[in-house]
Amino acid sequence: EGRVTWVERSHGSFFRSFGLPETVDPEGISAAIKDGVMTVTVPKRSQEPKPAAKEIHIEG
């Protein structure tokens, strides 16, 4: 699936914000720092089940 790599260099504190599409699961977002590299994982929402077809009897 799609991966995005964003490279920035700075020292000290920093702030970054960006918009996310509605297909993102905000409860599943996580971030980790290892060896000075921050990795942010932004999962997609699970697909909602499609409604099942229903037969309706028409009287008359």
TrEMBL record:
InterPro entries reported for this sequence: A-crystallin/Hsp20_dom (IPR002068), HSP20-like_chaperone (IPR008978), Small_HSP (IPR031107)
Residue intervals of the SHSP domain: 1-59
One Pfam family per UniProt: HSP20
Keyword tags: Stress response
Origin superkingdom: Eukaryota
PROSITE patterns referenced in this protein's UniProt entry, alphabetically: SHSP (PS01031)
Similarity annotation: Belongs to the small heat shock protein (HSP20) family.
Protein name listed in UniProt: SHSP domain-containing protein
Protein source organism: Monoraphidium neglectum
High-level lineage: Eukaryota, Viridiplantae, Chlorophyta, core chlorophytes, Chlorophyceae
